[in-house]
């Protein structure tokens, strides 16, 4: 028999995080939505202590032998890269249920840390993660997207040129989540994707860590957004930005054209981050669905279960469909997470989870607003905000269309050259 119950340790952490969302996120969600770019410092400072402990545990795991790591995993559900991904997903869902914008304000290595974990050496992990175990809140960010290189990362034009014991970066990156906090407001850093050999195509793209205060790195713009307004989304420009030679993640070697070995190492970042984005989407969808059911109950409208579809009202059918899609997205997400925890390749499953969650939750939130009518459209409630917040989950970390392409290529066994 397949058991879908979560372990006791994860259930306990889930309940604790839900309480955090109820007490410290929901009450201020509207306020920070209306005051875009202002940071919820009370919330940030509250969770910073937990972030420091998590990163410290991750660094401690780096020092363990294989036998010690295996024993620790049995006792605490921890994996070599830190807390298990399934736990990360469960907690992300709860925080997004509280507020997606505030959730994206969380300090820590975050997306940049996922890139360091995927490609960096043990020494680089120690060096770049250590600051996150001490002092005041810090952020890690990841800079990929360019004006002419969105979903097609192979079109990246930002460049890195070797000059003695340094790399010199030039280019502009847009839509950098927490870019201002990582590059300007804290002692953080940003992982920048750039090409070191344009003639090598995708194989020439590498990732570099650029630390806050590095001359030549400038935050030039903050986006005004439809949703997730508490989170800053920045444009960062690199002009003759000189960084140490060992700030390149992984090997600087470029494979011959036609191979993507180095690029695949960088893309492994998405295998780790896409399930987390899917979990965040699920949290928003769950919030919207619970709101609808609560308002229906207040009006004495019961949603019945265990009856024939032919006996259901139109509203009941809609609710059942919303619930089914939400649960399907969650199970796909948990599967992708569990595979990552077992160190199995999860590229297909991560893209399936991300595509399903983004599409399903966008439709769930839209349907919730539709069912509630004026109540759903009114700013008196958070439902209209959840509809605005949810859409980004179908866009960043690879659009729904791109993830469906990845799924199709994996299922059909087609390469990028055969299915675009």
Automatic annotation (TrEMBL):
Residues 141-241 form the Acyl-CoA oxidase/dehydrogenase middle domain. Its cofactor is FAD. Coiled coil: none annotated. GO terms for molecular function: acyl-CoA dehydrogenase activity; flavin adenine dinucleotide binding. Residues 261-412 form the Acyl-CoA dehydrogenase/oxidase C-terminal domain. It comes from the Bacteria. Gene3D superfamilies: Acyl-CoA dehydrogenase/oxidase, N-terminal domain (1.10.540.10), Butyryl-CoA Dehydrogenase, subunit A, domain 2 (2.40.110.10), Butyryl-CoA Dehydrogenase, subunit A, domain 3 (1.20.140.10). PROSITE patterns: ACYL_COA_DH_1 (PS00072). Keywords: FAD, Flavoprotein, Oxidoreductase. PANTHER family: ACYL-COA DEHYDROGENASE, ISOVALERYL-COA DEHYDROGENASE, MITOCHONDRIAL-RELATED. Belongs to the acyl-CoA dehydrogenase family. This is Acyl-CoA dehydrogenase.
């Amino acid at each position: 028999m397949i058991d879908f119950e979560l372990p006791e340790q994860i259930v306990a952490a889930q309940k604790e995080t839900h309480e955090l969302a109820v007490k410290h996120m929901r009450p201020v969600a509207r306020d920070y939505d209306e005051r875009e770019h202002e940071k919820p410092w009370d919330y940030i400072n509250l969770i910073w202590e937990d972030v420091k402990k998590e990163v410290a545990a991750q660094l401690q795991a780096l020092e363990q032998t294989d036998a010690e790591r295996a024993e620790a995993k049995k006792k605490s559900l921890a994996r070599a890269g830190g807390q298990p991904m399934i736990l990360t997903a469960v907690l992300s869902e709860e925080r997004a249920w509280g507020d997606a914008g505030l959730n994206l304000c969380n300090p820590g290595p975050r997306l940049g840390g996922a890139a360091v974990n995927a490609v960096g050496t043990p020494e680089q992990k120690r060096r770049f993660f250590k600051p996150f175990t001490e002092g005041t809140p810090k952020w890690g960010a990841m800079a990929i997207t360019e004006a002419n290189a969105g979903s097609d990362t192979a079109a990246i034009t930002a460049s890195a040129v070797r000059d003695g014991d340094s790399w010199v970066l030039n280019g502009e990156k847009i839509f950098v989540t927490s870019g201002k906090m990582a590059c300007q407001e804290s002692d953080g850093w940003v992982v920048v994707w750039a090409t070191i050999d344009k003639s090598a195509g995708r194989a020439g793209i590498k990732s570099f860590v650029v630390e806050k205060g590095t001359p030549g790195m400038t935050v030039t713009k903050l986006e005004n957004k439809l949703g997730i307004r508490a989170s800053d989304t920045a444009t960062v420009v690199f002009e003759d930005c000189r960084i140490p030679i060992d700030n390149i993640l992984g090997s600087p070697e470029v494979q011959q054209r036609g191979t993507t070995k180095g690029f695949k190492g960088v893309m492994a970042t998405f295998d780790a981050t896409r399930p987390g984005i899917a979990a965040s989407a699920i949290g928003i969808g769950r919030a919207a669905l619970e709101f609808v059911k609560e308002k229906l109950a207040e009006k004495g409208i019961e949603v019945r279960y265990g009856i024939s579809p032919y006996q259901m009202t139109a509203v009941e059918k809609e609710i059942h469909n919303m619930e089914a899609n939400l649960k399907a997205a969650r199970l796909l997400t948990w599967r992708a997470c569990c595979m990552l925890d077992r160190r199995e390749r999860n590229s297909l499953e991560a893209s399936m989870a991300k595509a399903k969650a983004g599409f399903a939750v966008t439709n769930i939130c839209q349907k919730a607003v539709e069912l509630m009518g004026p109540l759903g459209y009114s700013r008196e409630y958070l439902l209209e905000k959840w509809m605005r917040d949810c859409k980004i989950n179908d866009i960043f970390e690879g659009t729904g269309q791109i993830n469906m392409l990845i799924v199709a290529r994996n299922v059909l066994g087609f390469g990028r050259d055969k299915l675009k």
